[in-house]
Amino acid sequence: MVLYLISVGLSVTMGLMGFVNLAHGVFAMAGGYVLTSLMNRFAVPFVPALLGAAVVVALASFPIERLLYRRLYGGEELDQVLLTMGLVFISVAGATYVWGPLQQPLLPPPWLSGAVDLGIDSFPAYRSFLILCGAALVTALWLGIERTRFGIRLRASVDNLRMAQSVGIDTSRLFMTTFALGSGLAGLGGGLGADLLAINPGYALQNLAYFLIVVAVGGLGSIRGPFVAALLLGVADSGFKYLLPEFGAFFIYALTMAILLWRPRGLFGRA
Amino acid sequence: MTPSRAVEAFARRHHYRPYEALPWVAAVASYFVFPDYLALGAQILATILFALSADLVLGYAGIVTLGHAAFFGTGAYVAGILAAHGWGEPITGLLAGAVAAAVLGFLSGLVVLRTTGLALLMQTLVVATMVAEAANKASFITGGDDGLQGMEVWPIFGRFRFDLFGHTSYLYCLSALFLCWLAVRRMVHSPFGRSLTGIRENVRRMHAIGAPVARRRLIIYIISAALAGISGGLIAQTTQFVSLSFLSLERSGTVLIMLIIGGVGRLYGAFIGVPLYMVAQNRFSEIDPVYWYFWIGLLMVFIVVFARGGVLGLFDQFQR
Predict the structure, then answer these.
(1) What ipTM does the predicted assembly reach?
(2) What is the CA radius of gyration of chain B?
(3) A209: nearest Cα among B300, B253, B287, B80
(4) Please, which residues have CB within 8 angstroms of residue B236's CB and are 6 or more apart in sequence?
(5) In the beta sheet, which residues pair with residue B110?
C-alpha cells in the first residue's frame, strides 16, 4: 500500500506527462523528512504535519519543474534518465548534509500505534490507516481525472498536445500543476510510509526499482493500474516468500518480466 | 561539399585519423608520468572498456539500458570464481567471463529486446536485479555480502606477475582495451555497424528495406555483453576482489553517466568521460565521499541542460 501511495504520484508525472522521472523517490523522501522534522523538532501533530509535507513538497517542485523538467518534455528518454538520476545523487548528498546519515525515527500518534479489532482479527492501527488513506486517494484521483475540467484538459493535452494548445489550453501551466500534484502525492506517500520504508539519505536510490516496477507493471497514465499492480506484486511477493523462502525475491521479478512481455504498456496502460 | 566529395568522405570514414592515436599516446605516457597511480589507471582502462560496451548498445543501437552491470558483474564473478578455485590463468579466465556474459546477454536479450522504450528500460533493470539477487543468494560460491575472497591470479603467460604497484595490471588492461577497441572500431564501420545506426535512427525504414532488425539488435546486445564481461573480469583480476556492488543498479547508472560526460555514439566518449569521472571521484572522495554525489549530480544536470552530447559534443559546437 505504501508502494501504491508513492507510485500513484509517479504514475501521474511519468504516465500522464510522458516523462521518465527517476527522481520521484526524491520527492517521496523529502516528504518523509519534512514530516519527521515537523513532528520531532517542532512538535507538530501527525495529521497537520502530513499535510504540511505534501504541500511543502508540491511547492518545492514548482521551481524544479520550471527550471529543469520543462526543458525536456518530449525529449529523449536518455536525457530524462540522466537529469533525474542527477537529482537523485544531489538528494543523497543533500539529505546527508542536512539530516545526517542516520535513519529518521517516526513516532505515530497514540491513536495509530495500537491495534484495531475488526471482529475477525485485530490489525495494526497504523497499517489500517494507510490502507484507508490509499483507498481515499484512489477514489479522489480517479474522480479528479475522469470527472473534473482539470482532468479533461490534462487527458486532452497528453493525447494530443498541439490540438490541446490550439483549442486554448495553457498546457505549460497545466503540466506545472500536474507535476506539483504528482510530487505532492509522492511527498504524502513518503510521509505516510515513513514507518515502513525507512527515511534515510539513500532512500531515493534504494526504492527506485520498486516504484518503477509498480508503475511499469500497472501501466502508465492510469490511476487504477499502479493500485492493482501494487496489490498484485505485494501479495505475490509475500506469498512466494512464505511458500519458497529461498527463491522468494525471484518470482516478483519474473512476474514483472512476464507481465511486461505480455503487455509492454502495463496492465492498464493505454495503447 | 559537392556530392562526389561527400561520397568520398563517406567512403573514407573508416580510415584511421591521426587524432585517433591520442588516447593511446596519453595512456602510454601516463604509465611513465604517473607511476604512483597505476592501480587507479588500470581501473580506469578497464572501466573505459565497460563504457565502450555500453556505447555500443546505447550510442549505436539506441537501446537504453539500466542493467548493463549484470554483464559486467557476471564477467567479474566468473573470472573471480575461477581464480578462487584453482584456475588463475588470467587470459582464459577473461575469456570465460566474456563467454558467460555473452550467454547471459543472449538469454536475456531474447526476452528483453522484444520491448521498446520504457518497458525495455524496465526489463533491463529487472534482469540486472535478478542477477544481483541470484549472486546474493548463491553466497556459498560468490561470498554474498562479504564479497568474493581468496583469488589467486597466476602470472600472464606464466611470466609477468601482478605486482603491488600495478605495472602489470596497467599494461594488461591497456592491451585488452586496445584489442577490444580495434574490434569495436572495425565493427561500427562495417555494414553491420551502419545498419545498427539505421535501426537507431529509423526502425520502420530499416524494416521496410528488409534489414533483420531483431537479429541485429540481439547480436549487438550479445557482443556488448561480452565486452562488459571482459571489463568486469579485468577489474576482478587486477583488484583480486569481487563484490555484489559489481552488479548494482548504481554501477549501471554510473557507466551511463561516464559515457554521457564524454559523449554518446562516438567511440571516443568513453575515453574522455571515464578518466574525467574516475579521477574526479578519486580526488573528491578523499575530501568527502558523500558530497561527491552532490557534485556528480550537479554535473549531470548541467550536462543535460547545457552540454548535450558531452565533452566531445562541446568540441563539435566550437568547430561550427
Answers:
(1) 0.70
(2) 20
(3) B253
(4) B75, B76, B77, B79, B80, B83, B97, B148, B151, B242, B246
(5) none
What chain A residue is nearest to B253 in terms of C-alpha separation?
Answer: A85
Q: What does the radius of gyration of chain A's CA atoms come to, in whole angstroms?
A: 19
Residues of A in contact with B134 (CB under 8 A): 250
Contact A92 B125 (CB under 8 A): no
Task: Please report, rounded to a whole number, the percentage of residues in chain B having pLDDT higher than 90.
Answer: 17
* Nearest-Cα residue of chain A relative to residue B131: A250
A122-124 and A115-117 as β-strands: parallel, antiparallel, unpaired? antiparallel
A57: left (phi over 0), alpha (psi -120 to 50) or beta: alpha
Q: How many CB pairs under 8 A join A and B?
A: 123
Are B121 and A20 within 8 A, CB to CB?
yes
- The pLDDT value recorded for residue B220 is 93
CB–CB contact A77 B299 (8 Å): no
Cα(B137)–Cα(B144) distance, integer angstroms: 7
CB B90 within 8 A of CB B161: no
Q: Quick: pLDDT tens for B1-39.
A: 456 676 776 667 677 777 778 888 888 888 888 877 888
Of all residues in chain B, the one with the smallest CA distance to A86 is: B297
Q: Binning pLDDT at 50, 70 and 90, where does residue B312 land?
A: confident
- Residues B105/B128, Cβ–Cβ less than 8 Å: no
